[in-house]
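In the laboratory, one determines a bound structure by crystallizing the protein with its ligand and collecting diffraction data. In a computational setting the workflow is compressed into a single prediction: the sequence and the ligand go in, and a structural description comes out. We illustrate the idea with adenosine-5'-diphosphate.
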Amino acid sequence: MADIIQLLPDNIANQIAAGEVIQRPASAVKELLENAVDAGATEIKLIIVDAGKTLLQVIDNGKGMSETDARIAFERHATSKIRAIDDLFRIKTMGFRGEALASIAAVAQVELKTRRAEDELGTYIEIENSVVLKQEPCAYHIGTSISMKNLFFSVPARRNFLKSNAAEMRHIIDEFIRVAMAFPHIFFSLTSNGQQVFHLETGNLKQRIVQILGNSYSAKLVSVKEEMDYMNVYGFVGKPETAKKTRGDQYFFVNNRFIKSAYLNHAINTAFNEMIAKDSFPSYVLFIDLDPSVVDINVHPTKQEIKFEDEKIVYAFVQAAVKHALAQFSIAPSLDFTL
Ligand code: ADP
Ligand code: MG
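The predicted complex, in structure-token form:
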């Protein structure tokens, strides 16, 4: 019998791997916005057509890429962000896996325009099914634009799994908000089918929360701020009256990365204790900054789950910080502690 095992060609391996990173248009939104943040952009624009099924474009004014980097960026495991495994535990960037652009290029038609400050001309690249169709110099402003067209055009089974435009758009807005909330000093905009959905001028965290979650929060945010030797927690919790019947405005960030943690959510719920009804959910936007060496963010490709070296300490610290903030607010409810 002949041997039967073969290595998959790169473009097929890429398409398979892409499924982990890019499940829907919103996953591309997260990856492309994070790349723009990592590139040091101060302005990031997201343009969507048909909930990202037809077009999804991110334009940034970050540091751009050289001609060679622009090409290699689409290879799998191509990253400028880590060099060795230890770097994962010192990481300051949102990305590090070097998989996003390769995945996007494996399942969509992609156009890149990019230029660095030191280059007179930028680079234009067209790529489809992991194959570069065109690469040429082009005039462009400093920064990068990546357009992703016709997501999953070559994987019809996956395209059929996409939900209605309304449902996919909700996912896109969720991801957009999660990034925009964490970087209030960056301008973000989102347009969908030519309509402006968000236009977020730069400001402080409180201003960004109000821009995103609405004016009803402007006098209802209680500041949280607590420091320990290797960990800070800061941000805002909504006054008890902002609690909702459905899990709504709850945002947790670890080193600026949005994460889901039922465990830490519980810490906050218990800090509110008697102040809100048993069946309602407090509102919060909280950030924990801690030494990257005590957290493992490489648990899942989307990095929304993380592992703390000592989860109990983080739990107790967050709970205490929220309790402390709420206690100050309830001793003198007429004073505004939100500043
Ligand atoms: P990762 O972000 O994990 O490094 P990506 O596939 O998302 O992997 O990106 C690959 C590389 O391409 C990045 O490490 C970065 O050097 C470069 N890159 C991607 N997007 C941008 C951008 N908007 N501006 C500048 N460089 C970028
Ligand atoms: Mg990335």
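Residues 10-200 form a domain with the Heat Shock Protein 90 fold (CATH 3.30.565.10). Keep in mind that any predicted model is a hypothesis to be tested, not a measurement.
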